[in-house]
Specification:
The chain has 34 helices and 14 strands. Strands 1, 2, 3, 4, 5, 6, 7 and 8 form an eight-stranded mixed β-sheet that branches. Strands 9, 10, 11, 12, 13 and 14 form a six-stranded mixed β-sheet that branches. The protein is of the alpha/beta class.
């Protein structure tokens, strides 16, 4: 392929055209007046151009061709020019009323001698006739780059066919009144290193430095004088979000490269302990939010500053523009353009990370600098396929075949690509953990990939996170998982995914204070994530810290007010605190049958609970396959409590038929299968078999995890009652209430399964003890969560 002779001179730029409305008529009427109009226009345009870091490319007759390093600066400069001219007309300053129209487009340009060429120039020129008098016409590409940082949105003209432009362009216009509503403050730093027009660069740099220092003091004063929130730590960290990069190229590969630029900035900033970097999954929803204002996005993400950028590719050249924006003021703190050959992609990534770190005033330590200098792969094409695999999993976490196909292509292009090897291992572990393939094969493949990645880059944070997932989800070796996750966090302290993973393991280990700290930090970096808040709530419920759990639910309500999970959790929290009326109120907003079944059960509505069981799709299974046994076990248990023993035995017989072959396998069956079978044996009168199985469950220390403890011990208690052993049942309930679990004394008192214990002195004393202990438990939980 022939190389573009202008490639090294190409760059991404914002192009503005202006001309005087009715200029020919002015000249025909009075040549002297035309000359004065031209002189006024040039003085105003050039004055504002110097303030906004623009460059005058060409002046011909009454028209200007201007170049800016950013759409942001170009738009504000046009608004300032129009406002200045409008003010002169209304005040009567001068004797020549000059009305301009202007157009703006962003895209690829090339300089050759003193001329400028490219799509940006052609499109901007064709937009000019569509501009209103005293206003501006701009393209969708400009709007996409501004990402909604506009207090007044432009009016759309729809897709327009422009002369000699092959594809239709969506055009927007600002009439004068809307243009006047735009803020005019010029950028605090010049995006492309300085105005190339006629002024003293050194004096400008001194002036900008002074302005930035003074502005910084005024911005900082409110934060210094404001009262500190009780939840703020003394060493509060700067919070930053990296929005998805816009791709102004049509190729699918280019969008993957843009995603890679965002990912590399996120990863490198996450290595800095002085920052709090919003997780990638939390910023992805803003990928196409071109109409959302930056302040609105910043408020939702609760950040101090935002990084946004764009990529344009032309042949073998890439042009990247990156901007750092202050969230409170919407001002540019820093901006820079980068032009490189596509083969220098990873050099660009390192340069951006260094420049951003300098802009946000944090320093990389030696390990971080070493990481910046490490090239992730020798193949840009392999990196593109790696990003495609990430995108597939982002679309749907179960898209394993599509992700694996992309990773296979990546590793075929570069077999020694550590990040791709780690992601391949994580995909294999996910396949195993989600029951897609429970054989040894996926775990063996995962281990092989991780060992190879460790040989290539032993200090890669993602590698240790991958080992943690392998141990936690594949081997259930929680101690080894914690060690690997801790290493990953030492290398990358702000990785929300690792914080969430280690918090989950801590929860399974009953290290609830540690779990709460980690999961709250993860939620802090994923402020729009309902799942992150639910993880926090799960620990607070285990701690029986119900007020704090209610507060976390309030946060979910602010994030997603229509979430179907909200009424379910609200009703459950009401029940565990003994407020049945409030629970029933929330239940009117629930449509999910399994949740309604459980809530009706605890409220003693057994008929309605049974009806909700039969609404569930698994009911249609008719007893074929292990997936159906919970329905039969659940239904059989509730029928027995309702007094319908014959119908209950029919369901329990189905449970036995399904589970006996599974539990007989030498490899121990899951506790829930063994527990269901033990209870079914008891209700069918097979007491000796039930006794042997329930003893085996207890002997094997069945419930080390607080998330499953209440369920296992409840099954043991119900089975002991069926076997006629009240003291053993009460002992199991005591274990539930004495340790961390989801169950409260109120829950136990309401549970229809324990009705025969009501009035038993030992049982009532147990409930009284648990109620008395709750305030102390809540205080301990609150201390641990700070």
């Amino acid at each position: 392929m022939a190389r573009d002779p202008d490639a090294k001179h190409r760059r991404l730029a914002a192009i503005v055209f202006t001309d005087i409305v009715g200029y020919s008529a002015i000249v025909n009427r009075d040549e002297a007046e035309g000359a004065r109009a031209l002189d006024l226009q040039r003085r105003i345009v050039r004055k504002q151009l110097s303030s906004y870091g623009g460059r005058e490319i060409e002046t011909a007759g009454d028209s200007f061709l201007l170049e800016f390093a950013s759409s942001h600066a170009a738009l504000r400069c046009v608004a300032a020019i129009q406002r200045d001219l409008r003010g002169r007309r209304s005040s009567g300053a001068g004797d020549v009323p000059v009305v301009l129209r202007a157009s703006l487009h962003v895209g690829d340009i090339a300089h050759r001698r003193r001329e400028v060429f490219g799509d940006a120039v052609n499109v901007a020129a064709r937009l000019l006739p569509l501009a209103p008098e005293g206003g501006l016409a701009l393209s969708k590409a400009v709007l996409s780059q501004l990402r909604g940082r506009l207090p007044e949105a432009p009016r759309s003209l729809g897709e327009c066919r422009l002369k000699n432009i092959a594809e239709a362009v969506e055009v927007f216009v600002y009439e004068p009144d809307r243009l006047d509503a735009l803020p005019l403050d010029p950028p605090s730093v010049n995006p492309d290193g300085g105005n190339r027009g006629r002024f003293d660069r050194r004096r400008l740099s001194y002036a900008v430095a002074a302005l930035v220092a003074v502005a910084g003091m005024f911005l900082l004063l409110p934060k210094l004088l404001a009262p500190r929130n009780a939840t703020d730590s003394p060493g509060a960290h700067q919070r930053i979000a990296v929005l998805p990069f816009a791709s102004f190229s049509s190729g699918a590969d280019d969008s993957m490269i843009a995603a890679g630029l965002q990912d590399s900035i996120l990863t490198n900033l996450a290595r800095v302990d002085d920052l709090r970097v919003i997780s990638r999954t939390s910023v992805q929803p803003y990928q196409s939010s071109n109409t959302r204002k930056i302040r609105e996005i910043a408020s939702e993400l609760e950040v101090d500053s935002i990084i946004e950028g764009s990529l344009q590719r032309n042949g073998d050249r890439i042009m990247v523009q990156v901007q750092l924006i202050d969230a409170a003021t919407d001002h540019h703190l820093w901006a820079q353009s980068y032009e490189r050959d596509i083969g220098d992609l990873f050099t660009v990534q390192s340069a951006i990370a260094r420049d951003v770190a300098q802009a946000v005033k944090v320093k990389f330590g030696a390990p971080q600098v070493q990481a910046l200098d490490t090239t992730p792969t020798r193949s840009v094409a392999a990196y593109t396929e790696y990003q495609r695999a990430i995108a597939e999993l982002d679309r749907d976490s179960s898209r394993f075949p599509e992700a694996q196909a992309a990773l296979e292509r990546a590793l075929a292009l570069d077999p020694d690509f550590p990040l791709a090897l780690v992601l391949e291992a994580e995909v294999q572990v996910r396949r195993f953990a989600s029951n897609v393939d429970r054989s040894e094969a996926p775990l063996l493949a995962a281990k092989t990939a991780l060992i190879r990645a460790a040989e290539l880059q032993p200090d890669l944070p993602q590698l240790h996170r991958g080992w943690g997932r392998y141990y936690a989800e594949g081997r259930r070796d929680l101690e080894s998982a914690v060690a690997e996750y801790q290493t990953a966090l030492r290398l990358m302290p702000n990785d929300a995914e690792t914080l969430n993973a280690i918090g989950t393991v801590y929860r399974e280990q009953d290290r609830l204070s540690d779990a709460l700290v980690a999961l709250r930090r993860a939620a802090e970096m994923a402020p729009r994530s309902v799942d992150a808040q639910l993880n926090v709530i799960s620990v607070l419920e285990l701690m029986r810290n119900y007020p704090a759990a209610e507060t976390a639910l309030d946060r979910i309500a602010a994030i997603e007010p229509d979430s179907q999970l909200l009424p379910v959790y609200r009703a459950r929290l009401a029940l565990v605190q003994g407020d049945q009326a409030k629970a029933r109120e929330w239940m009117t907003k629930i449509t999910y049958a399994p949740a309604l079944e459980q809530l009706h059960y605890y409220l003693g509505d057994l008929d309605e609970a049974i009806r909700q069981i039969k609404r569930q799709p698994e009911w249609q299974d008719n007893g074929t396959g292990a997936a159906a046994y919970p329905i039969h076990a659940n239904l059989g248990f509730k029928l027995w409590l309702r007094g319908d023993q014959d119908a209950s035995r029919v369901q329990m017989a189905k449970v036995v038929a399904i589970l006996e072959p599974l539990v007989a396998i030498p490899d121990p069956a899951p506790w829930d299968q063994r527990g269901a079978l033990a209870l079914a044996y008891a209700r069918l009168g097979r007491l000796a078999e039930s006794r042997a199985l329930i003893d085996r469950i207890q002997r094997e220390d069945c419930c080390p995890s607080p998330t499953s403890r209440a369920d296992i011990l409840s099954t043991i208690a119900f089975t002991e009652l069926a076997l006629g052993n009240r003291p053993a049942a009460i002992a199991a309930i005591d274990r539930i209430l004495s340790a961390s679990s989801f169950v409260s004394a109120e829950f136990v008192a309401m549970d229809p399964g324990y009705r025969e214990l009501h009035g038993d002195p030992a049982f009532e004393a147990l409930l009284d003890k648990a109620r008395a202990a709750r305030p102390a438990a809540t205080r301990i939980a609150a201390r641990g969560g700070r």
